[in-house]
């Protein structure tokens, strides 16, 4: 991969990490707040169904994970397993697609 | 004191020697004693003995150090020492490593100054207190001993990684306002084997006997290379 692409992957991972820092804090704070009076599926769906703000928040969260985790995985493969080249990058793209599909499906499921 | 010393090349073993303790004894004194009195076949490298040449670096109790500037009192544990060759470099024999790859990487990182002026031009004025010059000063005293390279985990994971010393050298040239090869140098230090592979563990900074922070220089390179990438100039 070109020097430019490697550099852009590096900054993409940093930017997504910054987003994740905010998303994780909001997510955990919401869990701690919401669990106070017991937790039910109805209560969760009551909060998320039709709520565009939660849809947008969790969509950003999932997309940040989709960018961040595969790039990190790619580095782990390179450094720990010595796996490089196209096969590694295709595998990582597949991992990204799986994360995006699973995450966005879940987000849509609790919105619709 | 019992001293275990690496004998052999990549394949080898630690051999134990009994060495008398002396006040102000350095690890280099210990190695020299072993070679002169106990085992004349022991291969090791040194020159100045006073921390100027950087040739006596070895792994002492698993930590890369200049042996000439390391007092036994400060590193001995339960009257034992373990002395081996520097990590991350091929061992030629015993405590002597092959440093070709280490210096080849300086060349790969374009560690040579390339000026534009000729002998007919006047001197280039460089303000000593400019931020660029202060950053150059912080990294310029490297003597190429290989301690940082040996301490770096990224080098052990990715043998192509240029390493802290070569990247530090590149950084001092990137910040040298007289240098005319910045673009090529930044291209050379980017990519899979370059500055963005650094994990900021700071082992190089922790171990550098000259108290240089290659990590800071590498962070500077990351920013400069990124700026070029975003502008589409890489």
Architecture blueprint of SSEs:
The complex is a heterodimer of chains A (112) and B (234).
Chain A: H1 3-34, H2 41-48, H3 52-81, H4 85-111
Helix pairs in contact in A: 1-3, 3-4
Chain B: E1 2-8, E2 12-18, H1 27-38, E3 57-60, E4 63-66, H2 72-75, E5 80-84, E6 91-93, E7 96-97, H3 100-108, H4 131-139, H5 147-151, H6 153-157, H7 164-174, H8 182-188, H9 203-207, H10 214-230
Parallel strand pairs in B: 1-5
Antiparallel strand pairs in B: 1-2, 3-4, 3-5, 6-7
Beta-strand proportion of chain A: under 5%
- Mean pLDDT over all positions of chain B: 96
Q: So how many helices of chain A?
A: 4
The global form of chain A is: elongated
Number of strands of chain B: 7
Could you give a short account of the major beta sheet of chain A? none
Order of helices and strands of chain B: EEHEEHEEEHHHHHHHH
Largest sheet of chain B: 5 strands, mixed
For the record, give the distance between the C-alpha atoms at the N and C termini of chain B, rounded to a whole number.
Answer: 56 Å
Please give a structural write-up.
- The complex is a heterodimer of chains A (112) and B (234).
- With 112 residues, chain A is mostly helical.
- Chain A has four helices and no strands.
- The longest helix of chain A has 32 residues.
- The relative contact order of chain A is 0.13.
- Chain B is an alpha+beta fold and 234 residues long.
- The radius of gyration of chain B is 20 Å and the shape is elongated.
- The mean pLDDT of chain B is 96.
- The interface between A and B is medium-sized, with 13 and 16 residues.
């Amino acid at each position: 991969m070109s020097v430019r692409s490697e550099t852009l992957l590096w900054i993409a991972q940093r930017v997504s990490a910054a987003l994740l820092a905010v998303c994780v804090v909001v997510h955990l704070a919401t869990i701690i707040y919401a669990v106070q009076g017991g937790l039910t599926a109805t209560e969760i769906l009551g909060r998320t169904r039709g709520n565009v703000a939660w849809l947008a928040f969790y969509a950003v969260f999932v997309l940040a994970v989709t960018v961040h985790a595969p790039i990190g995985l790619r580095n782990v493969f390179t450094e720990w397993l010595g796996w490089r080249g196209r096969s590694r990058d295709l595998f990582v793209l597949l991992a990204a697609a799986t994360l995006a599909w699973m995450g966005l499906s879940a987000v849509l499921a609790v919105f619709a | 004191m019992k001293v275990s010393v690496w004998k052999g090349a990549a394949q080898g073993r630690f051999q134990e020697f009994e060495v008398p303790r002396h006040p102000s004894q350095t690890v280099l004194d210990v190695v020299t004693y072993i070679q002169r009195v106990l085992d004349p076949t022991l291969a090791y490298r040194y020159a100045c003995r006073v921390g100027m040449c950087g040739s006596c670096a070895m792994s002492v109790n698993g930590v890369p150090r200049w042996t000439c500037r390391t007092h036994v009192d400060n590193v001995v544990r339960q009257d034992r020492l373990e002395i081996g060759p520097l990590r991350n470099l091929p061992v030629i024999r015993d405590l002597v490593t092959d440093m070709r790859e280490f210096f080849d990487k300086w060349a790969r990182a374009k560690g040579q100054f390339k000026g534009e002026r000729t002998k007919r031009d006047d001197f280039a004025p460089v303000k000593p207190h400019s931020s660029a010059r202060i950053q150059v000063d912080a990294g310029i005293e490297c003597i190429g001993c290989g301690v940082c390279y040996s301490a770096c985990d990224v080098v052990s994971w990715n043998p192509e990684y240029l390493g802290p010393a070569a990247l530090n050298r590149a950084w001092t040239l990137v910040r040298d306002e007289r240098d005319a090869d910045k673009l090529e140098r930044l291209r050379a230090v980017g990519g899979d084997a370059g500055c963005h592979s650094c994990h900021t563990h700071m082992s190089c900074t922790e171990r550098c006997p000259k108290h240089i922070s290659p990590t800071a220089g590498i962070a500077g390179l990351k920013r400069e290379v990124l700026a070029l990438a975003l502008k589409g100039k890489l």
